[in-house]
Design brief:
About 30% of the residues are buried. The protein is globular. It has helices spanning about 5-10, 25-45, 50-60, 75-100, 100-130, 145-165, 180-205, 220-260, 270-300, 315-330, 335-350, 375-380; strands at about 15-20, 20-25, 65, 70-75, 130-135, 135-140, 210, 215, 215-220, 305, 310, 350-355. A hairpin with a 2-residue loop joins strand 7 and strand 8 (about 215). It has twelve helices and twelve strands. This is YjgN family protein. It comes from Roseateles hydrophilus.
């Protein structure tokens, strides 16, 4: 049985009608936004980044229709810019400290750990607090304590990893400490704890969303996340073996094309180049997207509120991503806007919402509006996406 079927079976359909989700964004339209944003970011040495992000979010929201009504984003670019400056200062401080000594790097990492869950929570509050549908503002009501507890399982091994990073002046320089061995052990522990933390994070997120009088709930078993992780690892082994085999094939073709011989001196670089490219392609374009699609189906398939039931049947995401990566490389990056639109359309239109209540009867609540944008910009620095 597929992950989507398992998720659907876990929470029965409440009946009623379905709120259709459509995405109408096009690659050609988004290409113009992307090109202007990229140019202005380069000309401003990165300072235009928050304004570029605002244009991107507004375009995506304006082309996302739920039951025929588009989403809207009301965030203020200057508040996002202040958040950008704050995050830039933190990032520079961490980079400088990392160059000074392992002890300074560990201290900076601890500082980042101390503030990151709060910033992550602020990101969701800002994004959802400035998102509306049918004139109704959404919101996020997760507690600050819950944000820290959700990250706790990976904090300790991550801190140990930071302390054990091989460095000529660090623990690896001490003959009595086998830092490489403990680095590997801690990395394994971090991998084993990651699905647990993922389950905690998703429960925290999907128990805090609200719109009008609707507040989301989720029934998510940690073992289900571990099962997805196990399948992802097995897929990763298969992709790695495929990458090794294909690197020999493509490496040989490159060697013949440039030197006329497979065994010529220096041809090892062609095999290495082919191997690195394939591993990156299969990893970023295949493995990560497989995990993301299975997790989306599991999480959203078990999310509901008083009168809403969510479903997700995301299929073909890995195939689309692999195609997108190949086209991005072949076009020297110019296909990226088209790839983003295609991926966004697939992920959004895989969702379905069943409702037993008429949304036109919903009334706005008096919940406070969050205006702190520092957490939202933090997502761009650290690769966090507070969306799907």
């Amino acid at each position: 049985m597929s992950d989507a079927a398992v998720a659907a079976a876990a929470s029965p359909d409440p009946g009623g009608r379905v709120l259709d989700i459509r995405f109408t964004g096009s690659g050609s339209e988004y290409f113009r936004i992307w090109a202007v944003n990229l140019l202005l970011i380069l000309l401003s040495c990165g300072l235009y980044l928050p304004f570029a992000k605002l244009r991107r979010i507004r375009y995506v929201y304006a082309n996302t229709f739920i039951d025929g009504e588009a989403l809207a984003f009301h965030g203020d670019a200057w508040r996002m810019f202040r958040g950008f400056v704050l995050l830039a200062v933190l990032l520079v401080a961490y980079t400088v400290a990392s160059e000074l000594s392992p002890a300074a790097a560990l201290g900076s990492f601890i500082l980042l750990c101390a503030v990151w869950p709060a910033l992550w929570r602020a990101a969701m509050q800002f994004r959802l607090g400035n998102t509306s549908w049918r004139g109704l503002r959404m919101g996020f009501e997760g507690s600050l304590v819950g944000a820290y507890l959700a990250h706790l399982p990976v904090y300790i091994p991550a801190a140990v990893l930071t302390a054990l990073v091989p460095d000529s002046q660090g623990p690896s320089g001490d003959p009595g400490v086998n830092s490489e061995f403990w680095f590997g052990v801690t990395l394994l522990v971090l991998g084993l704890m990651a699905p647990w933390s993922t389950a905690l994070i998703k429960r925290y997120q999907h128990r805090g969303y609200r719109i009008a009088g609707e507040r989301s709930e989720i029934r998510l078993h940690t073992r289900s996340v571990y099962f997805i992780g196990l399948k992802t690892v097995l897929l990763g082994v298969g992709l790695l073996l495929s990458a090794v085999f294909l690197s020999v094939v493509f490496g040989s073709l490159l060697a013949i094309a440039f030197t006329g011989r497979i065994d010529a001196k220096g041809n090892g670089q062609y095999f290495g180049l082919a191997g690195m490219g394939l591993i990156y392609l299969f990893g970023a374009g295949g493995l990560l997207t497989y995990y993301a699609s299975r997790l989306q189906n599991l999480v959203w398939g078990n999310t509901r509120s008083g009168s809403l039931q969510f479903h997700s049947a995301l299929n073909g995401y890995m195939t689309l991503s692999l195609k997108n990566w190949v086209l991005i490389v072949l076009t020297l990056g110019f296909y990226r806007p088209f790839a983003v639109m295609a991926a966004t359309r697939l992920r959004l239109q895989a969702l379905r919402i069943s409702t037993t209540a008429e949304p036109s009867t919903w009334a706005a609540t008096r919940a406070g509006r969050h205006t702190d944008a520092s957490g939202d910009v933090a997502g761009d620095f650290f690769g966090m996406d507070v969306g799907l």
